[in-house]
Design brief:
The complex is a heterodimer of chains A (174) and B (113). Chain A is an alpha+beta fold and 174 residues long. Chain A has helices at 19-31, 38-58, 144-151; strands spanning 6-11, 64-70, 74-82, 103-105, 113-119, 122-125, 154-160, 165-173. Chain A has an 8-stranded antiparallel sheet, covered by helices on one side. In chain A, strand 4 (103-105) and strand 5 form a beta hairpin. Chain A is globular. With 113 residues, chain B is of the alpha/beta class. Chain B has a single domain, classed as Transcription Regulator spoIIAA. In chain B, 42% of the residues lie in helices and 26% in strands. Chain B has a 5-stranded mixed sheet with strand order 1-2-4-6-7, with helices on both faces. Chain B has a two-stranded parallel ribbon with strand order 3-5. Chain B is globular, with a radius of gyration of 13 Å. Chain B starts with a strand and ends with a helix. Classes of the chains: A alpha+beta (174), B alpha/beta (113). Chain B: Belongs to the anti-sigma-factor antagonist family. Chain B: Residues 22-111 form the STAS domain. Chain B: This is Anti-sigma factor antagonist. Chain B: InterPro entries: Anti-sigma_ant, STAS_dom, STAS_dom_sf. Chain B: It comes from Pedobacter psychroterrae.
Chain lengths: 174, 113
């Protein structure tokens, strides 16, 4: 194994039909430095696919970059995206006024995320699905952030108002 | 639409042709299936035989199709998912909501119940 940590910057595609090939390419880069079993490989692929899909949907062509930080005991996948901060369709917005309490926020009519504010511009997605909540009527039709949250060990969003940069920080214990 | 359609008795089998079940196809596919439902189809099999990966957008489209079918007494069966796609359904626990079978033949059994 090479000396850690290793930081690798990669540009992301803007063509949705290139996402999967690109995802496999990123996984190959990671695998040059880490031995990961199939379960980890699947989790990483899901995370990268969803980070890029989210960008293609919402970045409006603004610069976006993926940064990999390979370290021990953690792999971090960062997506850095210029532009306005994330907006919720629920009343709470960033900057948060109260960072002590967990919040329920939505990004559309049909989803509901529980988050833990970490500071006024930063929050962590909490595990979204509980056993007693799985019914078709209440299922969302937007799963991107759900998938990233479930496939990772922590999924954090941060906005830098000075740099006008969105940071999606995904950590996987390895 | 990159989909092959076959009808066997009262069951419609849709086979996705593209290897990417993603953002670029999810809305078109959903609308296509909605039109089929509105024209009377209610027993639907979707085959992922050719599909390499499925993203959240397509997953959302499948949920929307299931939500449209269920109130009219219809049934949706998903077949021939590769291990990565099966893993996605298990991760999101949507394997508890969807009927997932190995093959089109085993899907037919679901419509005889």
């Amino acid at each position: 194994m090479n000396k850690l940590p290793i930081t690798i910057d990669v540009e992301i595609p803007n063509d949705s039909d290139k996402i999967y090939d690109y995802t496999k390419h990123i996984l190959d880069i990671i695998m040059e430095h880490l031995h990961l079993d199939l379960s980890y490989q699947r989790r990483i692929k899901l995370i990268i696919v969803e980070l890029i899909t989210n960008s293609i949907k919402h970045s409006n062509g603004l610069p976006t970059q993926i940064q990999l930080i390979i370290d021990h005991p953690q792999l971090s996948i960062l997506k850095l995206e210029k532009g306005l901060q994330i907006e919720f369709s629920s009343p709470q917005q960033i900057p948060f006024e109260n960072i002590e309490q967990k919040l329920h926020v939505s990004f559309s009519e049909s989803n509901n995320h529980e988050i833990q504010p970490l500071d006024r511009y930063k929050f962590r997605f909490l595990n979204p699905i509980r056993k007693d909540e799985l019914s078709l009527d209440r299922l969302p039709e937007h799963f991107g952030f759900y998938i990233i949250t479930l496939a990772s060990d922590s999924f954090i969003y941060q906005y830098d108002p000075e740099m006008k940069e969105n940071r999606y920080i995904v950590n996987i214990k390895i | 639409m990159d989909v092959e359609k076959e009808n066997f008795s009262d069951v419609m089998v849709l086979t996705l042709v593209a290897k990417d079940a993603n953002l670029s196809r999810s809305d078109i596919f959903k609308e296509y299936v909605f039109e089929e439902i509105e024209s009377g189809e209610s027993n639907i099999v979707i085959s992922f035989e050719n599909v390499e990966y499925l993203d959240s957008s397509f997953l959302g489209a499948l949920v929307a199709i299931l939500k449209k079918l269920t109130p009219i007494g219809g049934k949706l069966v998903l077949v021939e998912l590769n291990n990565d796609i099966q893993n996605l359904f298990e991760l999101t626990r949507l394997d508890k909501i969807f009927i997932i079978r190995n093959s089109v033949d085993s899907a037919y059994i679901e419509f005889k119940k």
